[in-house]
Specification:
The complex is a heterodimer of chains A (252) and B (331). Chain A is an alpha/beta fold. Chain A has nine helices and ten strands. The chains are: A alpha/beta (252), B mainly alpha (331). The interface between A and B is large, with 43 and 29 residues.
């Protein structure tokens, strides 16, 4: 398995607060790597640093073996790093299709073709159709994205993320607020995507995490206290003490 | 703005507007021609700001800056005596305004939201005081154009020729912007307006996009300013004042943000309201307080027409549908 994204010693300080403390993480193709932890453990900050939204105070990020620590977010995205957001950040007034098409356009931007209709670009319209159907939104292409149900909006987030043909997916709570059925559908989609991508999954739904993750990293107060297979993490007394106060993780 | 393809109704509406403008000189007197000439220049100016505010979501409060540079350019770049050649003077004025917009944009686009508004205002005030307080542009008195620029058979001293010259530019810019907004570039601008953070996460470097839009907008405003100077044959610092930046902002808000035709409609509505409240025939001596009446009307229209004049048909439709629904529920 090849490491697609590697974070080494990532640290982020906000004044005196250390939000992320020397976190190292490897994402490999074909694996879902879940990051869990309580609210404020630094999971979203970690995603923001990996995706280039904020710079780290220390540490480095490598994508496909290249040091990208100083790259801007758009450059990282074009190089194959896709992300979704914890809160829906779709283009609410655009149709579902246009949301996907605009995301796909990132790979064929050609802004100097100012007289040419954007809809005439087959690379991006084709990609939009494809990712919308992959995310199960084929029937809703013409609907304004703001009118979708919550679960559909989360699906659209993933579709837009896929439209840029990323190699690495950083998903920030894709299951937040979803019902059981929607969760199953999303997990099936993530399982499908696993083969071709390296996936970082930040998620609060422990059942879902233990169902899908190949590896789990546990963060407490910005630092990693465990990073192992789901079974080992579940068995770790440290994790139980720090994170769930003794309750069995993912117990059935 | 949700629809990407222009609907037939909109195309017909815009075509009818331009046809009406083309016929207008044949039914109106010289006063009417002069008035509509001025309004078409405002419409062109409003289109330039619509590209920034309505299409890209950048509220610029210094648009008069670029208008003024185009206008002053028409006088300062030309020869001191005799008419200049339109063929180089017009592009030179557009480029001068666009170049200044490139500089202002490069610096001000590092800020966002209300800071962006303030920084663009600051740059505009800077340019205003340069022409206001230095002899460069004749100071507060302004300067007169010795002779209007021409080219071959084009003689802009003829009111009708000037009218159709400006009509042509309005049509050309409107058409070009309509194409541009449907293109990949235009869709990226729309994406930036709705959710810039997402655009960056998707792989769009948004800064160059915004800077390009800002520069094009400045060039169009410069074109409008140039035409204004040629029409009046006279420029003064008021062309760069924040009042004009505010007025053009009101035009596009009045017309309806997010629509090119909103800029056209807004420019006409604003200028005609202004003429109406200034008219002594209607208001007698009260006409000198015209800005009061204009202000109240604008406040009312913004409160009552949240989508602008462009949104009026939709607003009526919604109300009719709503009324029908309530009737059905009552029955």
């Amino acid at each position: 398995m090849s490491v697609l994204l590697r974070g080494t010693g990532i640290t982020r300080r906000w004044g005196g607060l250390v939000a992320v403390d020397r976190v190292s993480i490897d994402l490999t193709r074909g694996a879902v790597h879940a990051v869990i932890g309580t609210n404020g453990a630094g999971k979203s900050t970690l995603i923001n640093i990996l995706s280039g939204e904020i710079p780290p105070s220390a540490g480095s990020v490598e994508l496909l073996g290249q040091d990208i620590t100083r790259w801007t977010q758009p450059r990282r995205a074009r190089a194959g790093l896709g992300r979704s957001y914890q809160r829906n950040t779709i283009y609410a007034t655009f149709t579902v299709f246009e949301n996907c098409r605009l995301a796909a356009q990132a790979s064929t931007q050609k802004p100097w073709h100012w007289w040419q209709d954007a809809q005439a670009c087959e690379a991006s319209t084709g990609m939009a159709q494809q990712v919308a159907s992959k995310a199960g939104l084929s029937d809703l292409l013409d609907r304004p994205a703001g009118l979708l149900s919550h679960g559909q909006k989360r699906q659209l987030e993933i579709a837009m993320c896929l439209a840029t043909s990323p190699q690495v997916l950083l998903l920030d709570e894709p299951l937040a607020g979803m019902g059981a059925e929607e969760t199953d559908r999303m997990l099936a989609l993530l399982s499908d995507l696993r083969a071709g991508h390296a996936i970082l999954l930040v998620e609060h739904d422990m059942d879902a995490v233990f169902r899908i993750a190949d590896r789990i990293t546990v963060m407490v107060n910005g630092a990693v206290i465990a990073s192992d297979t789901p079974d080992a993490v579940r068995a770790s007394p440290e994790v139980q003490a720090a994170y769930l106060g003794g309750t069995e993780l993912g117990g059935h | 703005m949700s629809a990407v393809q222009p609907s037939l109704g909109r195309v017909v509406f815009v075509a009818a507007c331009f046809a009406a403008l083309a016929l207008w000189p044949f039914v109106s007197g010289s006063f009417g021609v002069d008035l509509v000439t001025k309004i078409m220049i405002y419409a062109l100016f409003a289109l330039s700001l619509e590209l920034l505010v309505g299409s890209t979501g950048l509220v610029c409060f210094g648009q008069a800056d670029f208008f003024g540079i185009g206008a002053y350019g028409a006088l300062l770049l030309g020869p001191s005596t005799g008419p200049a050649n339109l063929l180089w003077l017009l592009p030179a004025c557009i480029l001068a305004a666009a170049a200044y917009a490139l500089v202002v944009g490069a610096l001000s686009l590092r800020t966002k939201g209300v800071y962006f508004i303030m920084v663009t205002l600051a740059f505009a005030q800077m340019a205003y005081y340069v022409v206001h307080d230095t002899p460069l542009g004749g100071g507060t008195d302004g300067i007169y154009l010795s002779a209007k620029p021409g080219l071959g058979a084009i003689d802009l001293n003829q009111p009708l020729q000037l009218y159709f010259f400006i009509w042509f530019w309005l049509l050309a810019v409107f058409g070009a912007l309509a194409l541009l907004l449907r293109s990949r570039f235009g869709r990226a601008l729309a994406g930036i307006r709705v959710n810039e953070q997402r655009m960056r996460a998707t792989g769009f470097s948004t800064y160059p996009y915004k800077l390009a839009a800002f520069t094009v907008s400045g060039g169009i405003a410069g074109l409008a300013g140039f035409l204004f100077a040629v029409k009046d044959g006279f420029v003064n610092p008021e062309l760069m004042s924040w009042h004009l930046s505010g007025a053009v902002l009101i035009m596009i808000i009045l017309g309806g943000l997010g629509h090119l035709r909103g800029a056209l409609i807004g420019a006409f509505a604003f200028a005609l309201l202004q003429e109406f409240f200034k008219s002594e025939a209607v208001f007698g001596s009260f006409a000198k307080h015209w800005s009061l009446g204009l202000g109240i009307t604008i406040i009312l229209s913004v409160a009552l027409l949240p989508r602008g004049l462009v949104g009026v048909p939709g607003q009526w439709r919604d109300r009719l549908v709503g009324r029908r629904k309530t009737a059905e529920e009552a029955a």
